[in-house]
Design a protein that fits this description.
This protein is mainly alpha-helical. The protein is built from 25 helices and five strands. It is elongated and about 90 Å long. It starts with 9 loop residues before the first helix and ends with a helix. The N terminus is likely disordered.
């Protein structure tokens, strides 16, 4: 959507940790590394498709990008280097004198300069002079940023995100040891350097933040995922003794090198790529747009939603719910219903509810319920549709204000078939794990089935036309921790199979 010649390719963004394009010609021999195409979708286990997303218009994204301190520092560094360039040593670094002058000009510390230098070389804010390898020049990304063009500015910001995710944790931890000779003086604490590998983890956790963009990640989750991945992703699979050894190694590591999670978060803050509260860490709109672009290039389908709720179809409205908060979905549904007209909106949503899966059905009914009294005609028209009849009765009862059972009109009484359908919808969502936690399953079951009503409800589910009833009963029969409930579910599952 925001294509530009300077936006890093998907393999570049995801493979920054293994990318040696910015290494000075004298720093490595050609035989020391290989260029490989990276199948990011496969490497990170990404699905073929993700829920649709709405992005800010390009001018707003560019405006947000311009506010970030980090690109401003990189632009200042590129301006200091200039078109005539600066001399570098055989390792591709500025002389000590020039480093001091650059830090003074930019007003940053030596540590911050080290990161800035790597970011700059990583995505061509700076580049080595192709005609004089002992000089560094301002690069194409700096030109893009300086142009002021919205597309180019967003491209430069996206490239900088690639550098932060790819380079930050490469500069964290112990210095790389290129000595091939055995060192007999290494002790156990030095061996801990081999326990953790943070290479590539910046991008991995950024993708996790994209996937969790609705809820975000807590600070603890962010840190634990980072450490677990750095340990090889096997923390949950190892024995207690090994887990304790890893915990001790992590403690020594943090004492020696600091907290990698905090380091990465701080760098992302300077790019305005994340927001961080006590509750959650989330990607900002400009980071979502950059990562969306790269994921799509990597082969993951992520549809873009229209700019406003009024332009959504009902199906798009329901599909977007997975990627936003409940409050945001309610606002979207309200705006969409207002644009459609209450009655038309309610009818379209109820049609989608009848055709959809249980999760979609409950979302659609929730949106209809939010419409309130203007949806009454559509709800009454749905009393003859088995998939939504129970929901329509519950919603109409709520709208009527009737509280006494004796006052409920016959047409709104919930029969066994209605209750079976509602319970099956709820339990289908609770039974979607192949190997569920029995205690969690028991909690979900009790929320759907009143105490003492298990057997009659199971009987009704066995007779139900709900396509998931048999699978739900079978699942409960296998995994519900209450032996009597499980036995009743198995009996009903057998009856359901026999009837079909």
């Amino acid at each position: 959507m925001y294509a530009s010649r300077s936006v890093p390719r998907a393999d570049r963004l995801f493979g920054m940790a293994h990318d040696h394009d910015h290494v000075h010609p004298h720093a490595l021999d050609d035989d020391d590394f290989e260029y490989e195409d990276i199948d990011i979708k496969e490497a990170l286990g990404l699905p073929d498709a993700l829920p649709p997303i709405r992005l800010l218009p390009l001018p707003e994204l560019a405006a947000e990008a311009r506010k970030a301190p980090l690109p401003g520092q990189l632009a200042a560094l590129a301006a200091w280097v200039g078109k005539d360039g600066r001399e570098v040593d055989e390792d591709g670094d500025l002389t000590d004198e020039d480093q001091a002058a650059a830090r003074t000009a930019l007003g940053i510390s030596a540590e911050d300069f080290d990161f800035l230098w790597e970011y700059a070389l990583g995505v061509e804010w700076l580049l080595f002079d192709p005609e004089d390898e002992d000089r560094v020049l301002a690069g194409e990304t700096a030109d893009d940023w300086a142009s002021g063009d919205d597309e180019s500015v967003f491209a430069a910001w996206s490239s900088t995100l690639a550098a932060v995710l790819g380079e930050t944790l490469e500069l964290y931890g112990p210095e790389p040891d290129f000595d091939d000779e055995d060192d007999e003086e290494d002790d156990d604490e030095d061996d801990a350097d081999d326990e953790f590998n943070f290479s590539g983890q910046g991008m991995a956790i950024a993708i996790l933040l994209f996937l969790a963009r609705r809820e975000g990640l807590t600070g603890e989750e962010f840190s634990e995922v980072l450490w677990e991945n750095a340990a090889g992703g096997v923390v949950d699979e190892i024995d207690e003794e090994t887990r304790e050894e890893l915990a001790e190694a992590r403690e020594r590591w943090e004492e020696e090198y600091g907290d990698p999670a905090r380091l990465l978060l701080d760098k992302l803050h300077t790019l305005l790529a994340i927001s961080e509260t006590d509750e959650a860490i989330r990607l900002t709109p400009v980071a979502l747009a950059a990562l969306h672009e790269q994921l799509v290039e990597a082969g993951v389908e992520i549809p873009l939603l229209p700019p406003t709720a009024a332009e959504l179809t009902g199906a798009e409205l329901l599909a977007m719910a997975e990627g936003i908060s409940d409050t945001e979905f309610e606002a979207e549904a309200s705006a969409w219903s207002a644009a459609r007209g209450a009655d038309a909106a309610a009818r379209e949503l109820l049609e989608l509810a009848a055709e959809g899966e249980p999760g979609e059905r409950m979302l659609a009914v929730a949106a209809v319920t939010q419409i309130g009294a203007p949806a009454e005609a559509a709800l009454r028209a749905s009393l003859g549709v088995p998939q939504v009849r129970g929901y329509a009765k519950v919603t109409l009862l709520a709208l009527s204000g009737i509280e006494e059972l004796s006052d409920v009109p016959a047409e709104l009484e919930l029969g066994p078939d209605d209750l079976a359908w509602l319970a099956t919808d709820l339990l289908t969502l609770a039974c979607d794990d192949e190997y569920p936690d029995p205690d969690d399953l028991a909690v979900s079951f009790r929320e759907a089935v009143p105490l003492g009503q298990e057997v009659p409800l199971f009987e009704a589910m066995a007779r139900s036309q709900h396509p998931d009833a048999g699978d739900v009963l079978d699942h409960l029969g296998k995994y519900h921790p209450d032996k009597q409930v499980a036995k009743s579910a198995r009996t009903a599952a057998h009856k359901a199979t026999s009837r079909r």
